[in-house]
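User: Please run a holo structure prediction.
Assistant: Happy to. Please share the sequence and the ligand.
User: Here you go; the ligand is inosinic acid.
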Amino acid sequence: MKLVFATNNLNKLKEVQEILSDSIEVLSLKDIGCFEDVEETEATLEGNAKLKANHITEKYGYDCFADDTGLEVVVLNGEPGVYSARYGGEHGNSEKNMSKLLNELDDKTDRKAQFRTAIVLNFDHQQYVFEGICKGEILREKSGNGGFGYDPIFKPSGFSTSFAEMNSEEKNKISHRGIAIQKLVQFLNSL
Ligand code: IMP
């Protein structure tokens, strides 16, 4: 069976393909000749994942899944949330995103936050949603060089290091995306 993952991020693709049964072949957007961007215009993670998955199913006719992730900070009422990628004003600029967040939290003692991933799967004319949450806190300064995005300032609960100080195997086991992917894979492998 062929299933599209609406991404061109090779790390995400590899993470899924490695734990999926061999009977399911995961294709990237490039693999199906999709080069257009789908604008993430919805106000929720689920809404944006749905937009991306529906675009592929409707335009290319494939069963498909798409993900969207946000960092939700308790004292900021869930911000940056769905706007995590462009919180600092420039899409994908992690330094600006982290600086803005550290400034916003400068005088705050409650640093609780969670990463949340929503995966929407279009399969056999039905739609399914899988969620993964990783709870933790925002550090006072950056720590570690690995990972991406907000990793240097996020410390998951029960661990003494930031995400940026973990290797990808350690992080995938406990991360929001890892948990959502495990739920998706469990569903697909049970078909
Ligand atoms: P996306 O939906 O996976 O593209 O994630 C949206 C934004 O959330 C990214 O641009 C990053 O800023 C942030 N983000 C998502 N996942 C992670 C993660 O595992 N660590 C740190 N930041 C992340």
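The chain is about 30% helix and 25% strand.
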